[in-house]
Design brief:
One of its GO terms (molecular function) is transferase activity. Keywords: Transferase. It comes from Eiseniibacteriota bacterium. This is NTP transferase domain-containing protein. The chain is α/β, with parallel strands linked by helices and 301 residues long. The chain has a single domain, classed as Spore Coat Polysaccharide Biosynthesis Protein SpsA, Chain A (Alpha-Beta Complex). Helices cover 28% and strands 23% of the residues. The strands form four sheets. Strands 1-6-5-2-7-12-9-13 form an eight-stranded mixed sheet, with helices on both faces. The chain is globular and about 50 Å long. The protein starts with a strand and ends in a 7-residue tail after the last helix.
Length: 301
Amino acid sequence: MKAKAIEIGAAPEPAARETPVFILAGGRGERLSGLTDRPKPLVEVAGQPFLVYLLASLKARGFRRVTLLTGYRAEAFDAWLAGASDRAAAEEPPGAPGPGTVRPPVPGPGVARSPDPAPDARARRILRGMEISLLGEESPLGTAGALRRVLPLVGGEALVMNGDSFCRTDYAALLRLRRARGGEICMAATRIADASDYGRLALDRRGRVRGFLEKGPPGPAWVNAGVYALSRGFLERALPAPVSSLEREVLPRWVEREPVWARRCRGYFGDIGTPERLAEAGERFPAAEILAEADPDPGRP
């Protein structure tokens, strides 16, 4: 299997981690359909597509090899990455929107056509030196079905994350914990004040996941933060079905017979899966801090 790779700027530094990263970016985002028709990772928060913050956080921690697992409107990702090339930067017209510009989604009960974003100068700097690949699906496969296709791209282990949620965590520590515990998968867990709209995690003292619970009443709980360190063995053994959900089908079955470990994370967590959460992210999302980790000087050309 060969993913289409787009090299942004210079080659990765020799010391950069070689662990492949896969971002699940294929969902339709039905709950946002009245606001925008963009793929969720390209929906803007605080002036940048949400995807930029994921890539900035990865780059700041040394990860350079990223594959976007696309589905719905895959061509929008292709066009966005093409716009991040140095040639596109040279052709950017005067007065192009800057990093502080917010393009709000167009509201409407039907299909709301939103102009696809173009990378600004800061986004291009963040992507420079990263190797971004696109691996699309012709029909919806679910999160586990999409991951099933990446097996030829994984040597020993990989990092996987949702394209519509963000958790400030140490990705390398997640990988180390998986290896130290000897399991096939380790996930980031975050404790939120109101977990009524999320599936909950039952954790023991050591951080082993004992169960995936249904949504419950309002109140604090540990929930899945959507970031995973997993082994090639997990991909080989846990994903037999061509169409399936990692969260709803694969992990609840796996935890019954194999260990699933969680690393408790106490940094910011948020997602943009509903209009309410998207609005909340616009108010609380630590955009400036995340961008500064990968691009500390926003004023430079």
